[in-house]
Amino acid sequence: MTQKFKHLLCVETRNKRELHRAGWIMVDAATLIENGYLEIENGLICGVHRGRPEEKSIDHGPGVLMPPLVNAHLHIELSALKNCLPFDKGFKFWVKTLLEKRQALGKKELIKKARDAVQDLIQSGTLYVGDISTLNITGPLIEDSGLKGIFFHEFLGSDIPDVFCLKNDSVSFSVAGHAPHTSSPQLLKALKKSAASKGLVFSIHVAESDDESEFIRDKKGSWADFLTFRGIDFSSWQIGSKTPVSYIHDLGLLDFSTLAVHLLNVNDRDMDILARTKTKVCVCPRSNENLHKKLPDIERMIQKGIQPALGTDSLASCKSLNMFEEMAFVQTHYPGLDPETIVAMSTINGARALGVEHMTGTLSKGKKAQLLYCPLEGLNKKNLLSRIISNE
Ligand SMILES: [Zn+2]
Q: Where in the chain is the domain with CATH 2.30.40.10?
């Protein structure tokens, strides 16, 4: 894919009045203004107008000014594992190889490649991220780079750690539980409580693998054997005859400030639970196809009233962190989804998933002056969104 994306502008720190015009202004995926301009004052959007400004303005050209993209789930720390892991030998083998190779690479190399990945993210129009880090190494990189969003320190197992949570306008620090089958219920509840006490989003992978579903449903199987082998006593875990979603719902983990990621193995009842509890959802279709040869049922989620965000997962399971490429994949593999929905997934839905929708996700009055310009030509109302998605 040729990269047509031109520039990401963060003018929210400038204390002056500026007008930014372009051939098109995308206020949100459903509101496209031909030949318009944005009025910015003290770093905030204070007006969206039609026509050409009479005062001096910054003219970006015939393309589109739009909200910056949100990659709501990724693991920047795994960037050094790009092209290192096999996708055709099963999920367990992938996880095992990932852990071995991550250990062998060492922190220095992981940080070096993570730094490159952060630059690639910015270059490809992503400003907000929901970054998961088990090794707790990418927070400072994100802060220094100008990326925004949430850094999630991720935990698994059963030890209850001391955690650091901090809410910020730029980068917030929160916590994530790895998954229902890898983390004790006590740990998951403690992490959720820590995040909630600071008004922060808590993240968890859920309903991703068949092993996970089998373990939560049957309380036995190969995952149960693995935990027993590792000396982890799960006898008190209240699993059995449950789906991963219903299990973590019973633990009290699902609400508007939990971000549930993947949801490959969910039934209608699970979707009803997610919708009713207003749980935020993020899907990572390219990663799912590589690791599980399966895609999440996005159309059904939307019918149920869920508004999924989009993420890439890591370079260990997906060939890029580029949100344009993730959107293009969704467009190809979900012919039932309209371009408006796909663009909303990577803008406003992502912003809601990270709890930053008061600052970004749309170019409307009161939001931060953070803009993305795509220099596309020959646009009209009909082709604009699909041209953005294919970025050509
Ligand atoms: Zn993940």
A: 7-67+362-390
CATH class of 7-67+362-390: mainly beta
Locate CATH 3.20.20.140 in the chain.
79-353
3-state secondary structure of 3: coil
pLDDT by residue (tens digit) across 312-361?
Answer: 999 999 999 999 999 999 999 999 999 999 999 999 999 999 999 999 99
Distance of CA 57 from the midpoint of ligand 1 (Å): 42
User: What pLDDT does 240 receive?
Assistant: 93
Cα–Cα dist 153/139, whole Å: 9
Cα 366 to ligand 1 centroid, rounded to whole Å: 32
How far is ligand 1, taken at its centre, from the CA of residue 316, in Å?
Answer: 10
Q: What is the pLDDT of residues 147-157, one digit of tens each?
A: 999 999 999 99
Residue with tokens 């372009």: 22
Predicted TM-score (pTM) of this structure: 0.96
Is pLDDT of 227 > 90? no
Residue 290 Cα to ligand 1 midpoint, Å, equals 13
Rounded to the nearest angstrom, the distance between the alpha carbon of 287 and the centre of ligand 1 is: 9
- The SS3 call for residue 63 is coil
Query: From the CA of 43, how far away is ligand 1's center (Å)?
Result: 33
251 and 188 in contact (C-beta within 8 Å)? yes
User: What's the pLDDT tens digit per position in 134-191?
Assistant: 999 999 999 999 999 999 999 999 899 999 999 998 999 999 999 999 999 999 999 9
| Chain centroid offset of residue 131 CA | 8
Cα 55 to averaged position of ligand 1 atoms, centre (Å) = 47
The CATH number given to 79-353 is: 3.20.20.140
DSSP 381: T
**Cα–Cα distances in angstroms (integers) from residue 105 to residues 84, 95, 112, 357, in the given order:** 11, 15, 11, 37
In Å, what is the CA distance from 222 to each residue of 53, 156, 215, 392? 65, 18, 8, 46
